[in-house]
Design a protein that fits this description.
Oligomer: single chain
Number of strands: 9
Distance between the termini: 62 Å
Number of helices: 6
Helix content: 10-25%
Radius of gyration: 18 Å
Strand content: 25-35%
Order of helices and strands: EHHEEEEEHHHEEEH
DNA sequence: CAAATGATTCGCT
DNA sequence: GCGAATCATTTGG
């Protein structure tokens, strides 16, 4: 397993980087031990032209200013007043793109991650346990103990090792990458259905599979229909 | 300065 | 399935 120090790795556009990050490891060093997750789900936010991006129309605020500082940096933000999201800036500085890390599967430090998630003793199968750790962006940050403290961190900085990306040779085949719509961006108009979410096929830690998403969508439409027929 | 708003998760019905 | 939790950040007056 080797750490990725190469800035060029993060210099790709966010869609390419989202694909490249699948199967890579997030290494979180806190105190004595390292917590390690293999990335199973990502989302690309494509900067100015992308209405779903915090940097849509080139908008820069105090919250998102790190998106404008170049690739390989950590963009953390609080969502719904409750959870944190871990993003990595992508492409050249003028593009202000980023990749949201949505889910992962534990590789090392499981015990600490369970504690960080406040999951309590395991009543379920170990497969079930694995799914609870980081099957969603907020859960992932909780498991790794990430918050605004990591905002702006340079993942390629050799003098910092509290958070970085590593490669252990895990091979991801193109045909095992599923493309799907991004989650929770209904406000994004023309961009809300773009296939810029990527996840590993048959990976149980993925937050929402295509089938689950379509079923949910179908139910929503059905409910709306019933509501209409009542009037 | 007040009001609105999420790149979500969990627990209860 | 649905709604609440909960607050930093942004926006508008």
């Amino acid at each position: 397993m080797y750490r990725i120090y190469d800035r060029a790795f993060f210099e790709q556009d966010a869609v390419s980087l989202s694909r490249s990050l699948l199967g890579k490891l997030i290494v979180r060093t806190a105190g004595e031990q390292s917590l390690v997750l293999r990335i199973t789900e990502t989302e690309a936010y494509m900067g100015a032209p992308d209405l779903a991006s915090h940097s849509r129309n080139g908008r820069m605020t105090r919250r998102n200013q790190i998106m404008f500082q170049g690739p390989g940096l950590v963009y953390m933000f609080l969502i719904y007043g409750v959870y944190y999201c871990f993003n990595i800036t992508a492409n050249e500085p003028g593009k202000h793109e980023a990749v949201l890390i949505r889910a992962g599967t534990p590789v090392a430090g499981l015990k600490q991650m369970i504690e960080n998630r406040s999951l309590g003793p395991s009543p379920k199968s170990s497969a079930q346990r694995i799914k609870e750790i980081a099957s969603g962006p907020g859960k992932l940050c909780q498991a790794l103990g990430l918050d605004l403290t990591q905002y702006g961190l340079d993942l390629t900085d050799p003098s910092r090792d509290e958070l970085y990306i590593a490669d252990d040779g895990f091979a991801v085949r193109e045909e095992d990458i599923i493309e799907d719509a991004r989650i929770g961006i209904d406000y994004a108009g023309k961009d809300k259905d773009r296939p810029w979410r990527f996840y590993l096929k048959d990976e149980p830690t993925v937050s929402l599979t295509r089938d689950q998403r379509l079923r949910r969508e179908a139910r929503r439409i059905n409910a709306k229909k019933e509501e209409r027929s009542e009037r």
